Amino acid sequence: MWVLALIFLAAACVFSLGVTLWVICSHFFTVHIPAAVGHPVKLRVLHCILQLLLTWGMIFEKLRICSMPQFFCFMQDLPPLKYDPDVVVTDFRFGTIPVKLYQPKTSTCTLKPGIVYYHGGGGFMGSLKTHHGICSRLCKESDSVVLAVGYRKLPKHKFPVPVRDCLVATIHFLKSLDAYGVDPARVVVCGDSFGGAIAAVVCQKLVDGPDLPRIRAQILIYAVFQALDLQTPSFQQRKNIPLLTWSFICYCVFQNLDFSSSWQEVIMKGAHLPAEVWEKYRKWLGPENIPERFKKWGYRLKPHEPMNEAAYLEVSVVLDAMCSPLIAEDDVVSQLPETCIVSCEYDALRDNSLLYKKRLEDLGVPVTWHHMEDGFHGVLSTIDMSFLHFPCSTRILSALVHFIKGL
User: Fold this and answer.
1) Which residues form the Alpha/beta hydrolase fold-3 domain (predicted)?
2) Confidence tier at 35 by pLDDT (50, 70, 90)
């Protein structure tokens, strides 16, 4: 029996080594690390770890042990949390929605700003634990009360469940600001990546909210604002740059919106929407809305191919403003509060931020824009990763703190 056990153990070790070598080799063959990012070795290590977890998740999913998102979430939440002695952290629920409340330990009679934070992660990664460091530092450095929302995710919960959970939690918070010592005139919604999209939608939903304090500002960190056009300049230029490669974007979009992967080529060619829809939204999505300096290389304007009606019938949900807040009506967008947008140069979603920034500015909404020339998608999450920390993450947090203190 022990001989069989040793053989099995040896086979498992060889297989694990093979998986690791495959991930490393595929990384070097398929991924591009720009020199301007800085710390290229760190980014390579970070991306290989991400790909290794995703690969093992896919293997376990094929073996029907668990789904890939379940495996990934289990692994990402293993590291113990580090608590700051100057921040009081409380876990509780708004109904069934788990939240974490961060409050500065120093007690004063002065009401503080309130920040509702929605974590990123493509709808399946990220959690209250992974963003604990960000929320804790945001609380301490901006002297604010931070509420982090643990919305439901893949594989069980798809669009629009995460948005609905965050909207409900935000309304709960707005109705109980007195209990947390929050100034009702200084409530901010904030999110990164997928969470940034949620923040934009929640803000739009609450512009007319009767009997609720008005949202003072929104902070949108390398967020996704539309799912119509996946061939903007940054999608073409940055499709092979970690941590958000083209294949990973497709996985997140198709899983969250419950699309068949067979439509990937059709969507790439722009054949999933009729010509009149492209014409209607060209004023907001067209490449002419993006400054020329972002289109100098690696971009080619591609005409949309004739519509595939079957695809359109299945993917038309992208025209819902809850899915693509960039295309919300003018009477909604014009009422939005002061906005802080953070974009990263080496991010496939860069142009989403540029397009939403222009849309807001055209309608008179004050916008503070921070563009990280050496940034990549997901860089803020490295802020408490010790040797995998990128200086850009600290600059982003400092920009957020400065914006919040200026409200």
Assistant:
1) 115-245, 311-380
2) confident
Mean pLDDT of the chain: 94
Q: Which of 165, 192, 347, 374 is catalytic?
A: 347
Strands 338-346 and 217-221: parallel
pTM over 0.90: yes
Q: Which one is catalytic: 142, 144, 193, 381? A: 193
Is 377 one of the catalytic residues? yes
Q: Which of 165, 377, 384, 393 is catalytic?
A: 377
How is 96-117 classified by DSSP, letter by letter?
Answer: TEEEEEEEESS--SS-EEEEEE
Q: Say if residue 67 is exposed, middle or buried (CB neighbours under 10 Å; 0-12, 13-18, 19+).
A: middle
CA angle, residues 307, 122, 174, in degrees to nearest 5: 110
Cβ count within 10 A of residue 303: 7
What's the pLDDT at 1? 66
Whether 16 is catalytic:
no
